[in-house]
Amino acid sequence: MRRYLLSALVVGGVGAIVGSAVSAAFVAQTSVDANAFSAGTVVMADSDAGLALFTLTGLTPASPAVARCVRVTYSGSLAADVRLYATHAFTPANGDLGPQLQLTVERGTESAPASACTTFVANTTVYSGLLSAYPTTWATGRVDPTAGSPETWTNAEAHSYRITLAPRAGTTGALFQGRDVNETFRWEARNQ
Questions:
Q1: Which pLDDT tens digit goes with each residue over 111-138?
Q2: DSSP assignment, residue 3?
Q3: Is 16 within a domain?
Q4: Which of 18, 22, 91, 192 is the most exposed place for a label (fewest CB within 10 A)?
Q5: What is the CATH number of the domain that holds 116?
Q6: Which of 139, 138, 149, 144 is nearest to 160 (CA)?
Q7: For 42, how many CA atoms within 13 A lie in the half-sphere containing its CB?
Q8: Across 24-45, average pLDDT
Q9: For residue 181, what are the domain limits?
Q10: In the prediction, which pLDDT does 23 show?
Q11: Does a structural domain hold residue 120?
Q12: CA distance 156 to 148
């Protein structure tokens, strides 16, 4: 009986080896090589060279309007929507000068981009109102160039903007004196 059992085990072991050898003979493979993935980009730059457009001191209600221009360029690989807004800050102890300043932001063309705006020609007004009421987030930002005719920016697109600040009509010295405001104007592109 032991012999039969030993013979059955030997035959079973040989069968398992032969079976695995047979199944290994029926394996095949193929592959799709060199798959690559990369994300698109959303990139903006401006012509201010890292300098402020405005450094105005000693303002009075009779100060003349001051205009500066900046060129904004898009170099992203994805099409993007652009909105304009700002970061608005002032010294609480001094008071906010923003409600006393009229802001106008225009989009247009400029044959020789320079901050002095000597060749700027406006084609649309993006914003006109008090500096303190200018939007401060993407969600509330001004759609470029206007909400009624939004534009999708594409690679190598550039536009010039003229930003004009002037004392608000009817303001008085008491509303101006000692007040300040710091504004960071922003153009934000998003691919959504």
A1: 876 777 899 999 999 999 999 999 999 9
A2: H
A3: no
A4: 192
A5: 2.60.120
A6: 144
A7: 12
A8: 92
A9: 44-190
A10: 55
A11: yes
A12: 24
Q: Tell me which amino acid residue 17 is.
A: I
How many angstroms separate the CA atoms of 155 and 17, rounded?
64
Number of domains in the chain: 1
Angle CA 157–160–165, to nearest 5: 150
* Contacts for 58-65: CB closer than 8 Å, 24+ residues apart: 59/97, 59/167, 59/176, 60/167, 60/173, 60/176, 61/100, 61/167, 61/171, 61/172, 61/173, 61/175, 61/176, 62/167, 63/166, 63/167, 64/166, 65/102, 65/164, 65/165, 65/166
Confidence of residue 192 (pLDDT cuts 50, 70, 90): confident
For 15, the 3-state DSSP assignment is helix
pLDDT greater at residue 142 or residue 11 = 142
Judging by beta carbons within 10 Å of its beta carbon (0-12, 13-18, 19+), is residue 110 exposed, middle or buried?
buried
35 within some domain: no
Taking the alpha carbons of 103, 62, 54, 74 in that order, is the dihedral positive or negative? positive
Q: Which residues, other chains included, contact 186 with Cβ-Cβ below 8 Å and sequence gap of 6+?
A: 84, 85, 86, 87, 141
pLDDT at 164 over 80: yes
Mean pLDDT of 37-53: 93
Would 34 be classed as within a structural domain? no
pLDDT band at 36 (very low <50, low <70, confident <90, very high): very high
